[in-house]
Amino acid sequence: MNLLIYKTQAELFEDLIDYIVNIANQSISEKGCFNFVLTGGNSPKALYELLATTYKDKIDWSKVFFFFGDERNVAPNHESYNGLMAKNAILAPLNIAEDHIFYVDTTLEPEKAAIEYHKAIVNHFKGGDLAFDLILLGMGDDAHTASLFPGTKILNSKEVEIDSVYVDKLSTYRISFTAPLINKAKNIAFLVFGEGKANAVQHVIEDEQKNTNLYPTQLINPIDGHVTWFLDDAAASLLDS
Ligand SMILES: O=C1O[C@H](COP(=O)(O)O)[C@@H](O)[C@H](O)[C@H]1O
Q: Where is the Glucosamine/galactosamine-6-phosphate isomerase domain (predicted)?
């Protein structure tokens, strides 16, 4: 695990963008494309906007395929739909072709949406190993990542798949990559900033005795890949230094 801690969000974003650009260009030169899984929530919006403006010439975007590690069970035009945030912040500004974007179809029932999303991904990988080049993840104050929330059934999944999950505390369904699918990635990057995340960061990174039911992000441990944490000082403030 690689732990990177920055004084400011600006420095964090600059380094994270460098990291994304390097992995993207390496993947494109090795196999002609870059399979990039986006995270939702609020934290990545400014990052996506920077990628689509200041840094837009650093990657050949026509060779990038975009996916979502999780989705909220709301209509695609709802302000909470992760795909809409990404569409506005990065996908539309870069004119990404529709057939390079894998949205979760939330017009379907959650279980069906998960099955269809899984099928689309298996199809994209032509039946091969579902190993994404880069999965970008956030983490909530409650240590959830993607839509792997504390105390939910999906945490027990041993399947490399997309699943639907009912999140009691939100009274809603989510559609999410399972931990085994995330752990197949070649690279995983956590983007986490702000004081509100400090307690979760400390438990996820430093607890010797894991409690994945309470801190689901502890499930993330790539099989062959690399995991890098991009934190600001506030999010890292409770870590032993
Ligand atoms: O609900 C979600 O929350 C997490 C964390 O989001 P943030 O707003 O605290 O940055 C996010 O990673 C996930 O994709 C999203 O659906």
A: 8-229
What CATH number does residue 225 fall under? 3.40.50.1360
Report the separation in Å between the CA atom of 29 and the middle of ligand 1, taken as the mean of its atom positions: 31
| 64 pLDDT tier (thresholds 50, 70, 90) | very high
Number of domains composing the chain: 1
The contacts found for 58-61 with CB under 8 angstroms, 24 or more apart, are 58/17, 58/21, 58/25, 59/20, 59/21, 59/24, 59/25, 59/28, 59/34, 60/28, 61/94, 61/95, 61/96
Residue nearest to atom 14 of ligand 1 (CA): 40
Residue 238 lies in a domain: no
pTM higher than 0.90 = yes
Q: 136 lies in which domain range?
A: 2-232
